[in-house]
Structures
1.
Amino acid sequence: MIPPIETASAAEIKAFQGQRLLELLAYLKQNSPFYKALFEKGNIDINTIKSLDDLASLPITTKEDLQKYNNDFLCVPTTKIIDYATTSGTLGEPVTFGMTDADLDRLAYNEAISFACAGIKEGDIVQLMTTIDRRFMAGLAYFLGLRKMKVGVIRVGAGIPELQWDSILKYKPTHLITVPSFLLKLIEYAEAHHIDYQNSGIKGAVCIGESLRNQDFSMNALSKKITDKWGIKLYSTYASTEMSTAFTECGHGIGGHHHPELIITEVLDDNNQPVKNGEAGELTFTTLGIEAMPLLRFKTGDIVQLHDAPCQCGRNTVRVGPVIGRKQQMIKYKGTTLYPPAMNDVLNDFDAIESHIIVIDTNDLGTDEILIKIAVKNRTDTFLQELKDHFRAKLRVTPKIEFTTSEALRPLIFNPMSRKPVHFFDNRKS
């Protein structure tokens, strides 16, 4: 199930997206209060935009714009809104996104081609281990996409290993959709209760919220821990509420495939200029085919690298590599630039660490301070020194590390108001 545009040549994809961009600009000028005002204020004549090469002359859109002018992005009357979703609010106030019936169809299409990328097909059964309620777009998107594919869905929701295994053993799903670290909880429960998970019938898991790979696409510590225990195929996927589009790996595991019929992607530097080919920068996108709240050159805050070498799966689209970090979560510590995912990877190298959180504060000198709280079975000075040495070897610096208990960390990591586990707490002064 590969859409023809995704196997077209790079030149054909560029021409196709250029035409879709012109259609989007006309739609925004006609229907979007925010973009109409933006074009007028900047004296922007959209008729001067002739192709994708002219995209860089258009203004960017930020998360702050969405937060401040949320309702002005709506291009349709509220009577056409079928579903309301909100962003997670990880980096600020949550933003509401309305979706029309056509937008929900687009969402289903996106997930259908994304899950097909990950090898799911008609006749499979998928266990959904994420919430579908609380205005969470992703859970709804997964359900709609699987339904479109004629795939059976078991809507278990997040957490509760006992309930997950009860459903797995009863309904025999072939694939799971889950946060990857939760797979370790499933394995731990299965081993403690003598469940033969190796012969459970699970073929693969589409993993959300946490990275599976290093920048060279080799498996990181988390995915190694999972697959060393459980021989299932793991697929990484990257998406956001704002883009209503997913970048999902195929079986070759070399980045999330771009869907050019749904989204235009750019990678920009701090001056909003495209980075050189192969360099990392801030992922910026323009949505295509969205009726209620389309976005033009929206900066995600995620630092990524695009890859354009051919993929053996036959798709000729660019691929998004693992997220290096979020721009607003960048830490300057003792002269070294760090992102939370790099610290998570170091911590995941140690099986003894049961859980952890990373806390960032500003000290009296106005610089960043890092405190990592870990829960381990056996607290020893030797282990603490080994962990510090590993940080120094991998990241060139050693943050402050404290022992605590799993009981103390659990309510912080699994906050009932959050849709996914939270390991990073940024208390810095803005």
2.
Amino acid sequence: MQLRYNFRVYPTPGQQIELARAFGCARVVFNDGLRLRRQAHQQGEKYICDGDLSRRIITEAKRTPERAWLGEVSAPVLQQALADLNTAYRNFFASLSGQRKGRKVAPPRYRSRKDRRQAIRFTRNARFKVLDNGRLRLPKIGDLAVRWSRTLPSDPSSVTIIRDAAGRYFASFVVVTADDETLPPVESQTGIDLGLTHFAVLSDGTKVTAPKFLRRAARKLKRLQQDLSRKQKGSANRTKAVRRVARAHARVADTRRDWQHKLSTAIIRDNQAVYVEDLCVAGLGRTRLAKSVHDAGWAGFIAMLEYKAARYGRTFGRVDRFFPSTRMCSACGRINVKMALNVRSWDCPCGAAHDRDLNAALNILPAGQADRLNDRGAQVRPGLVPAPRSEAVTHPDAARSTSSVEGICVLQGREDVKVAVCAR
């Protein structure tokens, strides 16, 4: 299993200059390759393969006076920049052909020197090395001081040096581990309903209050943004103010990530199987609740649960986002009418009283178990339940005038499919 370990590095002023030069060279190679392929496409020429692009953009370009300074940085850094371009094109073509699932991927765009985040990658061919004194030796850059928080489980296959918007430097190592990290099996399983009032509600009744890290830092961020708006564009003071704002946002993101790591680890450790609802975070991020949705960080939390479950031998599953977990009674299976967000509890005609979030978590657990036990991968739906008359979209007199219609039933798998006419 491939894992990524991030550590903070502290380059000297001279090493920062060398890193800036490497960032610039990698960016130029990426843009030159993108420009060459775009020109070939506009002129109706054949797509330039990876080998020809590397020869023209790196090997031959170094011999010209305009690009002779490319030889001042390590060659694998330039090669990895082209590898990123090739990967971006493959993802774009796979998205166009439908081979890549999910959201559509846009074509590659030019990299800007004004981007706040810069990165370069060293592979084993670059012969980087972690020294005995704890420093990281990079070719043509030097020995970087690293703050180690843990030991690497194996020798890294690559390392990426990242400079973020706050001016911090990080070393991201990719390691391959073959160790069996499977946790001892437990009997408990849980379904999780994610929300805004409570970040997570588990099917066992546990409720985790949403920390709202961005809301807590809103006053400080507002003051820093106001201070930034008063600075003259292009001045050194404006650059400092931009960095102060970036550091404040980075502190919020780091705090949220640390909290989510601790919560996800505890959930994976205490449960053999974890099931969550497949939320459309991108769509919710375009609503009036966008700020709260982004502050919650649901997508990052679900990704943590997924990879930790695979790492520690647990089961992870996603329930279809159209599954009516909130409106379905966890006691009798009846689907209620649509409820507004301010309705936090409701009563079922069967006599059960439900908390909105807890009821959703109780429904997510059996739905996830049913999907996992279905070996053919088809969607498992609950049984048919008579629909309330208010939910039926068929004309009231239709059943009287048509002898082949016996009743109206609800398909409980998707909320957008409301009713179906059940013929004999």
3.
Amino acid sequence: MHDQTALRTEGIADPFEQYPQVKAKVDAGYRGLAKEFPDQVQAPPLKPEKDAPPEDVAVWEEARHQQSSERICVEHANAEHKRWRTLQRYIGRREYFDETYSAIAGLVSDRAAMR
């Protein structure tokens, strides 16, 4: 499922409408959400065109690096869950996915707490 589809079907956008103080930094898959809520959601900057001057490319590279540096802890947390074989290629029934994911999230949390 595409990020935007999940966003609409699961009601992830609702807090942005209900609570204007909620802010988020997202990846490129949520660029539409950033357009819809420009003061609340920050997506990575658009890549400059091929014939853009080097100054524009340097500004883009710095902005992209800054945003990815701020998001790296979130990406690592997401990746840790996906290291579990059960989630790498989930073939179970859809209605059990939430329960499966919650169980693995608990195991990941316990492992992180032990570190």
4.
Amino acid sequence: MTLGEPQQRALHDAAVQVLRRNDLGTRTSAAPELYPHQWSWDSAFVAIGLARIDIPRAITELRGLLAAQWSTGMLPHIVFVPGAHGYLPDAERWGAQPAAARPPAVRTSGICQPPAQAIALQHVLDRAREKGGAELAATEAFLTETFDGWLAWHRWLARVRDPDGVGLVEIHHGWESGFDNSPRWDGPYSRVRPGTVAPFVRRDTDHVGDPAERPSDEEYTRYLWLIDQMRSVDFDDERVRDVIDFRVRDVFFSAVLAAASEVLADIGEEIGRGDATAELREIAVRFREGVAATVDPCTGLARDFDVRSGEWIGKATIAGFAPLVAGGDLELLSRQRTLLLGEHWMGHGVLRYPLPPSTSPMSADFRRRTCWRGPVWPFLNMLLGWASARDHAWDLRAVLRDASLDQLADRTFGEYYEPITGESLGSRDQAWTAAAALEWLG
């Protein structure tokens, strides 16, 4: 099915309403009841949607995130809203206070997420060019004013999170990946041995729908233990590597850094910051090649690497298509697109829509209702669609767009979707899902 004009208008208007309802003024909550805080890469995708309807508000969204940047250059994965809790057991313990590098008067977490912000910046600039006039001038001024902040973020990732220069970003918590409880992390988490961890209090909002969709208490114990380990060394970049039980080179995070660094280099050239473009393109090449080097010749999927165990992680998850985000070798990208469209993924006969599940239905790890173990994520389809357009892979982009719009036509704007029935799961009125709808509608 393809949506007719009345359905597209209804979807557009409903998506706009979601973004307006989730608007906190300077930041957008992912979902007010469940995710009241500002989450780093959520905000990047939200800004893409906001740019379709309100460019100044999209700029404010990104400015608010940058205001929480640490002095090291890191952008934290959560900027906390005072007094809010939502889906975050023991929210107080996730805060990085009193970390020396944390900005004053802003409460944040002490971990990060993939750097999709530069991709959002390019979308905002593209929409501003379409508008012209004052909005274009404001966007160009914003980019000039904040460029050094975004550059510092990329430099921090390249220097601190790739200490061996292999072209892969090292993460210290599964939540840094954005793929919170993916099967990718089962092995690394199994080797986390919590010491004395204060009990956490689970609130009524800590589960939505089927409890099987969310992590168990035992899993949360490991999550919090890792945060406690980081806090024990005041979140110091160098010391964390010595104490943390979880050290994984994340191939999808690395792909986002490669793509975003190329985009930020393009922006730098356009605003007269040629002094930084060579460095950014070097980062892009380094991580693009790092991603490509992980591809398993047997499965065709990219892999993560567990630094602690010295082992590759070859789970059949959507992260295996990291090269499609990173870009690069045309033959590799062609093989990956064929695989993605094939019967193990988008072409599997049981799927409600031809959209990539977070874990292959052919995998023993596939769980159709469990967060990141099977469900379809609309924001991720939007990212894959953007990368497809960048690489002129119009056939893949067309399938992603049409199927995504069909999926989102129910206007529930679910956090994620059951891949076989198409049922909306997790929170409703999710901001980045609404943003995806607006971007697909154009």
